[in-house]
Automatic annotation (TrEMBL), chain A:
Highest taxon above the source species: Bacteria
Record-level GO BP terms: transmembrane transport
CC annotations in GO: plasma membrane
Tagged with keyword Cell inner membrane: no
Signal peptide bounds: none
Entry's family note: Belongs to the binding-protein-dependent transport system permease family.
Residues of the ABC transmembrane type-1 domain: 68-282
Protein name, entry field: ABC transporter permease subunit
Compartments where located: Cell membrane
Organism of derivation: Paenibacillus dendrobii
UniProt cross-references to Pfam families, sorted A to Z: BPD_transp_1
Keywords from the UniProt entry: Cell membrane, Membrane, Transmembrane, Transmembrane helix, Transport
Length: 291, 292
């Protein structure tokens, strides 16, 4: 079986480049990150081992907790603002009419734009003096509602959730449409014969069938919201006074602006742990409901 | 089907709602276009909505005449072409290996999990940064194209597509004395051209849109791809310290209307391929789900 032997060589060879790149740029960094979390290190010079010192500091760091809270706000806003809206749109736009194709294209559009473009566009809209948002409010007689959207505490985080949801509804909608179109039409017909229509049909027939897809999108939502970074860096860079700081931006600012590599590493390890925890919780909750 | 009055009211409301949603998605882009085509005075006096005020192409002229912008445009093109090529070669070869059964390729399951693990967990930024620095590829284009070259998502889609190709074809090729390489090249690839095109498109868009890697891995503003340049201009970070940058030119391109023009220009390539992107994204989703 010389061909078979030769072929195994090629398979190994085919996998090798991707494997090496992945090992070097993805897997090793995960362990390094965990490792550096135990050191006090400025990125240059010797690193000083301080055990759980960084983690201890994280627990007492108010900015960290605020950042975590902001991340959880993003998770909540994604689950409330992206999943149901995407599902609703998918249900309404299921048919392949010209009209629904047009709407689908429009909703999907923001997803293909660079996060920097999305951030900049909404930065324009939120601009306190020249921004569209305040301008429209004034035009319709709600001048007292105008805000410095991205700098007022409490409002700025909410303002940031809008562009993030804006650019993420599209892909989820497309995923749901694909899942819904995979449902054999006989099932829907059978349900209607049995008297299930409208909401009843949605809750007792359609949703259970696509439930596994919903779970996948929930996981994507959670892990995406915890990794969220780009929009905030572009729009506010975590400011003012850390009010829009997220875990990822806090890690970034600690590392590349204050040069606390060790502390930043510890924060990124915590991000991974929180993410794993939330995904596990999500699985536990959704599993029970589908059973 | 009976069409009662209330049904028709509902239907109209439904359509109105959908039109409103799609307007919400499109109008922000239109606003940017309008600002970019308005005069500088109009844009800073807060009267531009969705239609240009005092129409002028000055912003576009300033942008295109600016060597800084042209340079970063070129950087973006270079990065997109190189990045897409590398990532497709890696994706195809790895997916081919992983598409084999356990009998042919014993460690398959382990390697698959190895790749999938990171779809949810990505490492911190710091170690990635250190890896790039230690490899000595900082400030080169390799720092942009190598770290993200392996897309697990693309690989899974490709893998599933390869799995869908009938085994008979492969066996026939083997009978004729072809090895795996020839089989991949002459049998699998020609059959998977639609998938390859789809994934290349995804990869191109990803490369074109990426900006953060440019920010941390490149020190010289002249090396920035377009997306990074856009971010830096808005962040208001002083780039005049970096050599060979004309301060006046910088001031020009940081204007509100000119920035809008640049935002819009940077979107054009994406908007051109958009119809394909959307269709293929759907196909990609079904491609992945059918074979699981």
């Amino acid at each position: 079986m010389s061909t078979a032997l030769k072929s195994k060589g090629f398979i190994a060879l085919a996998l090798l480049p991707a494997l090496i790149l992945f090992l070097v740029f993805v897997i090793i960094p995960i362990f390094w990150s965990a490792y550096y979390g135990f050191f006090e290190w400025k990125g240059l010079g010797t690193a000083k081992f301080i055990g759980f010192g960084n983690y201890n500091e994280i627990i007492h760091d108010r900015i960290f907790w605020n950042a975590l809270l902001n991340n959880l706000l993003l998770v909540a806003s994604a689950i409330v603002g992206q999943i149901p809206v995407a599902l609703l749109l998918a249900l309404v736009l299921l048919r392949n009419s010209l009209f629904s194709k047009f709407i689908r294209s429009a909703v999907f559009m923001p997803m293909v734009l660079s996060t920097v473009v999305v951030g900049l566009i909404w930065g324009y809209i939120y601009h306190p003096q020249f921004g569209l948002a305040n301008f429209i409010l004034k035009e319709i007689g709600l001048g007292s509602w105008t805000r410095a959207w991205l700098s007022e505490p409490h409002i700025n985080m909410l303002a940031i959730t809008i562009p993030i949801n804006w650019s993420n509804i599209g892909p989820y909608m497309v995923i749901y449409i694909a899942a819904l179109q995979n449902i054999p039409s006989e099932i829907g017909d059978a349900a209607e014969v049995d008297g299930a229509r409208g909401w009843r049909k949605l809750i007792y027939v359609t949703l259970p069938i696509i439930w596994s897809t919903v779970i996948v999108t929930l996981v994507l939502c959670i892990s995406g919201s915890l990794k969220a970074f780009d929009h905030v860096i572009v729009m506010t860079n975590g400011g003012p006074a850390h009010t829009t700081e997220l875990l990822a931006t806090y890690m970034y600012n600690n590392t590349f602006h204050v040069y606390r590599y060790g502390y930043g590493s510890a924060v990124s390890t915590v991000i991974m742990l929180v993410s794993a925890l939330l995904i596990a919780v999500n699985y536990a909750v959704t599993k029970r409901r589908s059973a | 089907m009976r069409r009662s009055f209330s049904y028709r009211v509902f239907s109209v409301a439904n359509h109105l709602f959908l039109v409103l949603i799609s307007l919400l998605c499109i109008l922000p882009l239109l606003h940017i276009l309008a600002v970019s085509l308005s005069s500088k005075a109009a844009a800073t006096a807060n009267i531009v909505k969705f239609w240009p005020v005092e129409l002028t192409f000055d912003a576009y002229r300033l942008t295109i005449e600016n060597s800084f912008f042209i340079g970063s445009l070129w950087n973006s093109i270079e990065r997109t072409v190189l990045g897409t090529l590398i990532s497709m070669v890696l994706c195809i070869t790895a997916a081919y290996a992983l598409s084999k059964e356990n009998r042919v390729f014993p460690g398959r399951t382990f390697y698959s999990w190895f790749f999938i693990f990171t779809m949810l967990f990505s490492a911190g930024l710091i170690p990635s940064y250190l890896v790039v620095t230690n490899l000595g590829i900082k400030n080169t284009i390799w720092a942009l194209v190598l770290p993200g070259a392996v897309s697990v998502y693309n690989m899974v889609l490709m893998l599933n597509f390869f799995r869908g190709i009938p085994k008979d074809l492969e066996e026939a090729a083997f009978m004729d004395g072809a090895g795996h390489f020839v089989t991949l090249w002459k049998v699998y690839l020609p059959l998977s051209m639609p998938s390859v095109a789809t994934l290349s498109l995804f990869s191109m868009v990803g490369n074109w849109n990426a900006w953060f890697d440019g920010l941390i891995y490149l020190n010289n503003a002249q090396d920035y791809p377009l997306a990074t340049l856009l971010q830096q201009l808005t962040a208001g970070i002083d780039m005049s310290t970096s050599s060979a940058v004309n301060a006046d030119a910088l001031k020009n391109i940081a204007q509100r209307t000119v920035k809008a023009a640049q935002i819009f220009l940077s979107m054009i390539p994406i908007l051109i391929v958009y119809p394909f992107l959307q269709r293929y994204f759907v196909q990609g989703m079904t491609l992945g789900s059918v074979k699981e």
